[in-house]
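Dear colleague,

As promised, here are the two records you asked about, laid out in our usual form so they can be pasted straight into your sheet.

NAME FIELD: protein one
SEQUENCE, THEN STRUCTURE:
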Amino acid sequence: MATIQKILVSQPQPATERNPYSELQKQGLELHFRQLIHVEGLTAKEFRQQRINPLDYTAVLFNSRLGIDHFFRLCEEMRLTVPDSMHYYCISETVANYLIKYIQYRKRKVFFGNNRFEDLLPAMHRRPQEKYMMVMSDVHNDETIRMFASHNIAVQPAVMYRTVASEWPKEQPFDFDMIVLFTPAGVHSLRKNFPDFQQGDKILACFGANTVQAAEAEGWQVAIKAPQPGLPSITAAIQQYLKDNSPA
């Protein structure tokens, strides 16, 4: 195995020294944090092409704070006044609390789960007349929509932002021994930035089955995969790989 010294982690720089990557850094590894993708909001014109009017719905579902920002941004751009009667269903309490930035938070209009939309089903069943719209990215999994449908709850997906490739600075060399990827969009960004990319002896680490699938579809070998039994995080998987492949 080639010596691993320089690692690209396609995520933002951690805010504190105590982070999941600190143990790797203590081993003398050189970690570089840079996102390969970024999010852009749809314009009002682009959103209107979906023929969705947010005011036709009595409730909005959010899976992230980013979705909240783009929902209220687009409503403002389209000069839509969100009624006080609107209900909000959020995947977690953290996401729900973010609504304070835009609305007067009242418990009877905001509901949240414990990082699962399934947790919201009882509240939704108590309101059979509710009409639901879910704010989404262009890159999304329709499994949640299908889950609601299996419980006879119709949810209209509404794409309000998209994930796009970030341009790699031309003056910065791409000389990493290991590349850590977290989304299929990150895989596609790597290919877009480097159309002639040859893996060679570079080690690829991928988090999530969809990311692994996207990388392998490019013809690349993924040496490190997470999560897997006993290795719930990408850092744990990297640590195990380094241990298994360390010089005798």
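NAME FIELD: protein two
SEQUENCE, THEN STRUCTURE:
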Amino acid sequence: MSLKQAKFYESVQANFKKAADLSGLPKGLLSQIEVCNSIYKMHFPVKIGNKFEVIEAYRVQHSHHRQPTKGGIRFSQHVNQEEVMALASLMTYKCAIVNVPFGGAKGGVKVSTRQYNAEQLEKITRRYTVELVRKGFIGPGVDVPAPDYGTGSREMAWILDTYTQLNNGELDAAACVTGKPVAQNGIAGRTEATGRGVYYATRELLLDKKMMDTVGLETGTEGKTVVIQGLGNVGTYTGLICSEEGGMKVIGISEIDGTIYDPKGIDVQKLLKYKKSKNTIIGFPGTKALKNREDWIGIECDVLIPAALESQIRKDNVNKIKAKVIVEAANGPITAEAENVLLKKGCIILPDMYANAGGVTVSYFEWLKNLSHIRFGRMEKRFDQQAMTQLVSKIESMTGKTISAREKLQLTKGADEVDLVRSGLEETMITAHEEIFTVYNRRKNVKDLRTAAFLVALEKVANDYEMMGIFP
């Protein structure tokens, strides 16, 4: 286990204990909530070329207070048991915060996706799925995986196909995994979900005058400067939506090949096209490449968004930060030691278990869609459109005024699946924001948003355990 991974697991435990000490919940109950209930470590052979390779992999179910358990699968050469345990723990608290009825889980396969082609990755993914099926670690009512670092809709489609073959005739088989392609029982809006959730969470914070006054910022998103670390799925959609819908200015982006900076703002859409053609972000017109890739952390900005991996902000680099607000789009990007330093400096930290919960929220919508066997909006879209058309026509006849066909279409359009998904995600993130800030503002012994978020989650998980009659 690397030092960064050790710090990540230790940070999750430290943050849990910090909140647990303030919760007033029974120690026995807190002990149950803290531990991972089921840990499955496996090794399986896969033929790669003319050789057999033994692949190390994990699936951890942290809590069974709600079932099924839910959490992504990451493909990374750095995967180990402690990392997967920490991620599974965060999933429990994340699901509770956004009121999604799952227990937390996580999976990991110790491979570098750069070292295998698509055919080889398919073999590994399908073989991993077979192991999960054999041990009962996957199923619509048992454990529902999703994409994470190194995986996407392609891998989820392979998992679904393998599960279906091994469970022929299971009516709800499509709900065994989320994050699937839309054409294969997925849901519109899932790909952007985590990044969109990060935007909604950031927006709600920036609209809070009391919080903005503490760091000397004006309220609102318009014109706020942003630096993003990581241009994967989460970083990409965070940057796009923050700039296009929030009017924020992305001035710095860091990727594995380097960090670029432009105080006038970076057009993320154009950067993505440049990256696709050049296979790098370095050299993008109008930007300056920093000599040291790690210097993204010291760029002066309003909002810093680490959207890559865990333990990126540590004791050795935390003092370089000039941002006033840090939004954790990645899981565990700030170690507990570094967080203490930032809080003393007066920084606002929006914690990962809330900020990046958009993915699991929309995964929940996909799961519901698969269980109901009907596309969102299919039943009501045309009815709503016709009702609104009649209303607009009635207003026109009463007022003697008419509007253009384009304006009428905008007013009468029924909601598509993606519209309903975005609306549901926005409502979820706003509600969670209100719950967290109610605890933060009303409890004098709660000094930071992470502790407030943990307390919200612990209370909900504890209530579930008590309802089960385990801790009367």
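A couple of things worth noting about protein two: The chain has a mean pLDDT of 93. The domain at 36-184 is CATH 3.40.50.10860 (Rossmann fold).

Best,
R.
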